[in-house]
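Quick entry, no commentary yet.
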Amino acid sequence: MAIATLEEYLREFSVEIGDRILTSFPALHAPGDAVSPILGRLLRKPFAAQSIAICGAAKRLQHANSVAVIAEMGTGKTLMAMAIADVVAAGRPYACLFVVPPQLLQKTAREILQTIPAPGRM
């Protein structure tokens, strides 16, 4: 059978592609690994899968200058980005720059205030 579409290609080779991704990019934080206690102080609690991604991204930043959180709409990328900054700061004061489209500015600011405890409220 000739493969004619991307969907057919992915269906045919999904196992091999998945194996290659895991070989090339091994998990830095796996399910079952302890998550940062800093996540417990957030006003909004991340889901378990988000906590794993947050801790993995924070570990990546120990050895790199940047990290990317790439996921579909509605998966909590904003929450994860805020939490990553907070985990990396490890309780120290910090500044963080969020670059967002103008139409998301108010939503992002509101989410930061609803998620990150104000200094002295920890």
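second:
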Amino acid sequence: MRRKEVQRPPDDGYAEFLKGSGSQAVSTTMAFARLLRNLLRDKGVGRRVVPIIPDEARTFGMDALFKEVKIYAPFGQKYEPVDANLLLSYREASDGQILEEGITEAGAMASFTAAGTSYATWSEPMIPFYIFYSMFGYQRVGDLMWAFGDSRGRGFLLGATAGRTTLNGEGLQHEDGHSLLTMSVIPNCVVYDPAFAYEMAVVVKDGLRRMYGEHEDVFYYLTLYNENMVMPPMPEGIDSDLLRGLYLARPAPEERAHHARILASGTAMQAALEAQQLLAEHHDVAADVWSATSYQILRDDALSVERWNRLHPGEPSRVAFITEQLSEGEGPVVAVTDFVKAVPEQVARFVPHAFLALGTDGFGRSDTRASLRRHFETDAPHVVASVLHLLAQQGDIKAEDVSDALARYGIERDLPDPRSL
């Protein structure tokens, strides 16, 4: 069957995200909504884009699309919506492009599968973007996602309101700390956890190239967050490292007596950046902050290198990308995530320095984000204390320095382990 090519979208569709947002704070969910709108407007690929939403589109900032591309309804709009007086009210049409499925992840996955395999069944490649509460994805329809991969489907799954501490107001049932692990078990699912809008844009652009330009049988899972951050401009020359899973996002501001590295992704990036400042100001530590956009990709690369070395004795050994990236700098490595510790620990044995992971193991509780991050020991003070702990273990600083830091930041030593709560 002849393949229909999908015209590559213009670079202009991504320019606003690569430039950053200046002083404006925005969430990656809202940045994605803007990127999706740009793709829908694109003359090359717009008509092939299929937005799919279970539950409520407004949760994910998609209401701006109602008027422009409308919600698909085979017989048009047959009722007056309760929000008819609003500018962004529900608009249904027989030629609508948004699939709003209601509270049915299984139904949404059926639509995602139909669109994601249409390149093979109908020789008409479609580009589905299925956005959902990250907690309710693989956990509810994981077998259908596995079947999608087995069917060589292509498209983007967007796990929104991601992370265990970002949706505290709706209770523990919404707090996702493990979707990055569950999605990574699907062999041809490519998993990313972007912290910044430009990371999300680069990944989506590369996914379009791989799936619809190079015809690779992969599909993508990206986390999206509902927490606003000031989005910096994209550093130059980091595209390749970003896509390979790890790049230097913010070097230490100036030289200090001691050195360390902090790995972070998603909303945990805020704790990492704050910890970098605290370490420099109060503890004489220069800490580089690295963005770990995909621990899955880093682990896959390291396992491939390990296998090649095992099967090619006598030949020069290859080096895993993460090992290469972290070999040049000095000091221990602390990884912080809004997911369980097992996410960064996927690469622990490939890190060429002392390594410690901070994550959100346990149920947690409904509280403020700040309280939850203190409870899970993933806030900036705990990142600082963890860096100092590793430095003390290496003999670079004294144990009393760590104790002083615990007192400075009000960290209680004898609370129950959050994993048991």
